[in-house]
Amino acid sequence: MLQKVEQIARQKDCCKITLEVLEGNEVAKNAYLKHGFAGYELDPEQGKAMFWQKVLAS
To answer: ∠42-2-48 over CA atoms, to 5°?
Structure first.
């Protein structure tokens, strides 16, 4: 699935793929590392990243 996501992203000329993972989820983190993903940090002077959501009713 991750390979397909990357293929589609490249076709659309996307500059990156981002994932969200809980820090305690070692299985997922190891899978993402295996597929070339890595953690990143923002400029600390700009503050921490905030994750927002909007729940859509089904």
So the answer is: 15
